[in-house]
Predict the 3D structure of the following.
Amino acid sequence: MTDKIISFALKNRLIVILLAAALFVWGIFALQRNPIDAIPDLSENQVIVFTEWMGRGPQVIEDQVTYPLISNLQGIPKVKNIRGSSMFGMSFVFIIFEDNADIYWARTRVLERLNYAQRLLPPGVIPTLGPDGTGVGHIFWYTLDAKGMDLGEQRALQDWYIKFALQNVPGVSEVASFGGFQKQYQVVIDPIKLVYYNLNLDQVVSAIRKNNNDVGGGKFEMSDMGYIVRGQGYIKNINEIEEIAVGHFNTIPVRIRDIATVQMGGDLRLGIFDENGMGEVVGGIVVMRYGQNTNEVIHAVKVRMKEVEKGLPEGVKFKVAYDRSILIGEAIKSVRKTLIEEMIMVSLVVLIFLFHWKSALIILIQLPVSIAIAFILLDIFGISSNIMSLTGIVLAIGVIVDAGIVMVENSYRHLSEEIYIE
């Protein structure tokens, strides 16, 4: 069989050259299509269900949230395993699917089961799906360089402007904010005054919730004109909260300001984000969607950041804290450098020892075609170009070179012997 292939190749050199050229072009096309990343994605094919129930201990979360969810998520097609984790105020359920299951099909199946499992959870507890990213999806980190702006203002800018702008970039699953203070209205109640006015905490919470709402009153017509009647009740400042009536005492309205102090503060924090020991900063983490091209997503994020930066307050700029595209570029540069060095060294070795330029040309053609075939196979099997796969190609270059030199030298020797015999 091998003799027939060799004989066919020798008799049809044009066909072999055209086939090699076609494989090389196909390899270039496959290289452009193949997702490029620095880190191989070895994470499991999973869907995460996150449930928040603040103020409850881990055991209560386990009994009333995690266990009912795990019990009802059993039986989903193509599920390998289900794991749960309960902590203070939060529950995590990890549904591990088979590797051949489509991630978005899996998320849809989990969502169907959650609609049924919702009725088994305590009132007000709503499970949500985690982002459609993987464990290595954190591809880009940035911070805000905003001298003179307090951390609360920076976090508000990140949460309500920058985050929404970057989430629209194709391939981005989520932009997670970190650092700073999340602003909130804080009502500090005096328990002694609460008892004095014969009120309870539920009345205060209910009064604030009801007054922070818009209501519709229908339509009113007068003099051939129609007027829409509605009540505007959304709270805009601290004074509006202080004027909310909670109850009455001796026919006199008791307001929030009579029983509590209202202030603007920050939400409870479990940690801070410090940059290089120079102080606390605010920023975001860009999480990539499953199966996207890391290099393209990072490039698109950078382009969008330049557009967003034009609308930032004066003196506020972006600072890159982590950029995986740099590592990707270095990995590709290393492969390109190794390939060029190998081609030059092999050509010199063949020319010096054999004094035959056609033999060197054969090996020079063999190397890029072999690498092109490797990228074709990576694209067919859905394997990304990462440090591991590129390292394997680099190591294989040496084997290809050795095999090429041995075959050329062997062919050259046989041809010399035949000429000598004749």
User: Anything to note?
Assistant: The domain at 12-39+327-421 is CATH 1.20.1640.10 (Multidrug efflux transporter AcrB transmembrane fold). The radius of gyration is 33 Å.
